[in-house]
Amino acid sequence: GAVGILILCLVSAAAALDFKYHHSEELEEYLRGVHAAHPSLTHLYSIGRSVEGRDLWVLVLGRFPTHHKIGIPEFKYVANMHGDETVGREILLHLIDFLVTSYGRDPVLTRLLNNTRIHIMPTMNPDGFEATKVPDCHYTRGRYNSNGEDLNRNFPDAFENNSASIQPETRAVMDWIKNETFVLSANLHGGALVASYTFDNGNPVTGSLKGYSRSPDDDVFIHLAKTYSSNHASMYKGTGCDNRQTFPGGITNGYSWYQLEGGMQDYNYVWGQCFEITLELSCCKYPPADQLEKFWKDNKVALIEYIKQVHLGVKGQVTDKNGNPIPNAIVEVKERPHVCPYRTNEHGEYFLLLLPGTYVINATVPGFKSMLKTVEISDNTGNFSALKQDFSFPEVSDQIRSRVASCPRTPLYQELTWTSAAVKPTVHILVLMTVMHVIIK
User: Fold this and answer.
1) Is there a single domain that holds both residue 377 and residue 290?
2) Cα(394)–Cα(229) distance, rounded to whole angstroms?
3) pLDDT at residue 136, rounded to an integer
4) Which residues are catalytic?
5) Edge-first strand listing for the sheet containing 357-364
6) Coil, strand or helix at 408
7) DSSP 3-state assignment of 232?
8) CA neighbours within 13 Å on the CB side: how many for 368?
9) Beta strand 357-364 with 182-189: parallel, antiparallel or unpaired?
10) Does the predicted TM-score (pTM) go above 0.85?
């Protein structure tokens, strides 16, 4: 009887989601209530704890919420990375409410949840949120975690050695990314109105001399940012928050806006094989609670349309002669290599986000001849399934399967700067002399 009453209380708490700010205890109570009310559609877990010991809660939604299912891509939203940027924290709670109440009623959202595993983290920096006592449109100390560190400057960087001490919240997210096969993600911020995409940092190799840091998948990132901005109530207008700053189409390359070292979106893309963009959702960082309903309405469609993009491109499995999955096989698009090669997961799966077009997919098991397959990719986001293309290596068996270590945590683009004309000639000569010495030797 006591258990029944507790469940009833949790369910009623889940049903009563007001447009207000939910502090840590209320947020946890709400998430537990949703899970109690929808146990077969949701899974609640913590990826770790903040400096002050608060759980970093994630609610998963989908037909198979408790574990990865082969062929079903993993998606995530992360909010409140800066504790004083609060709009994303609340609209993700309303997104959860919208999804669970629409399942089985709305055919599109039902198919989305049946074919996608959606992870939602309302707050990555609960300590910072609790430290922000008075709502304020501008910067406060609550931006940082309890150790005074900016979590969006705290990740390993692909271009520079990041000297920042990795924080518990950052480490938890890094481990989370390592343990899941995330394909697409967005992190929700405040203080501007724009969709920003990778790279946030750069060097001459990626185009920094021209004020733009281009990734190998720049076309896909532009599409992802435009998907969000064009479905937002006003972001697509690109007017920004004042007359000094405009964003054509409501999007920007991160480096073009301002250079950032140790950012989360670059880390996701380089080391996590996950395409992430940064969504700035409000000119005011911590607006009055009576504006939250409007923010939810402004973002509702964009949040859903963005999730659908996880089904862009191509996916499949790499197997050996017995049909067993081959982990750590490299699968990439020809002429679109990543500096940290994209590899299959433990199930031999790969996911590559690509716009409609013709591509050559290169699958490589180290030590064996590569397999090339030409694919014609359509926009399958409406079908909730990327194009399926498997690879089978008949000469590979369990006994000789190669297991490759993950990419190193050092700046991967560092030595590529030597090929740039911007680098001093003496460096070129030194490199050339070294290469010639090796060849002659």
Assistant:
1) no
2) 46
3) 85
4) 280
5) 330-333, 357-364, 371-377
6) coil
7) coil
8) 19
9) unpaired
10) yes
Give the integer Cα–Cα distance in Å for 171 and 77. 17
Q: Are residues 239 and 371 part of one domain?
A: no
Quick one: which of 8, 70, 4 has its CA closest to 37?
Answer: 8
Q: Is it the case that residue 334 has pLDDT exceeding 80? A: yes
The predicted pLDDT at position 426 comes to: 33
Q: Are strands 391-392 and 330-333 parallel, antiparallel or unpaired?
A: unpaired
- In contact, 54 and 27? CB cutoff 8 Å: no
Listed in sequence order, the residues at least 6 apart from 123 whose beta carbon sits closer than 8 Å to its beta carbon are: 24, 27, 56, 57, 79, 80, 83, 89, 129
pLDDT at 417 over 70: no
Domain boundary among 311, 340, 373: 311
The rounded percent of the chain whose pLDDT value lies above 90 is 78
| Residue 347: partners with Cβ closer than 8 Å, 6 or more residues away | 68, 70, 317, 325, 327
DSSP 407: P
Which pLDDT belongs to residue 427? Answer: 34
Q: Which tokens in the block code for residue 381?
A: 């986001």
> What is the spatial distance between Cα 417 and Cα 435, in angstroms, rounded to a whole number?
16
- 129 assigned to some structural domain: yes
Q: If you compute the radius of gyration of the chain from its CA atoms, what whole number of angstroms results?
A: 22
Biggest CA–CA distance in the chain, Å, is: 83
How far apart CA 117 and CA 60 sit, in angstroms, is: 7
Structural domain boundaries, residue 109: 24-311
Region for residue 46 given its phi and psi (left: phi exceeds 0; alpha: psi -120 to 50; beta: otherwise): beta
Q: Which of 105, 80, 83 shows the shortest CA–CA distance to 92?
A: 80
User: What is the torsional sign of CA 187, 281, 58, 22?
Assistant: positive
Tell whether 336 and 188 lie within a shared domain: no
Residues 254 and 341 in one domain: no
Residue 441 lies in a domain: no
Specify whether 96 is located in the same domain as 186.
yes
Residues 6+ apart with CB under 8 A from 410: 161
Q: Can you give the pLDDT at residue 401?
A: 60
Instruction: Report the alpha-carbon distance of residue 267 to residue 408 in Å, rounded.
Output: 12
* Residue-wise pLDDT tens digits, 362-379: 999 988 899 999 999 999
Provide the pLDDT for residue 405: 57
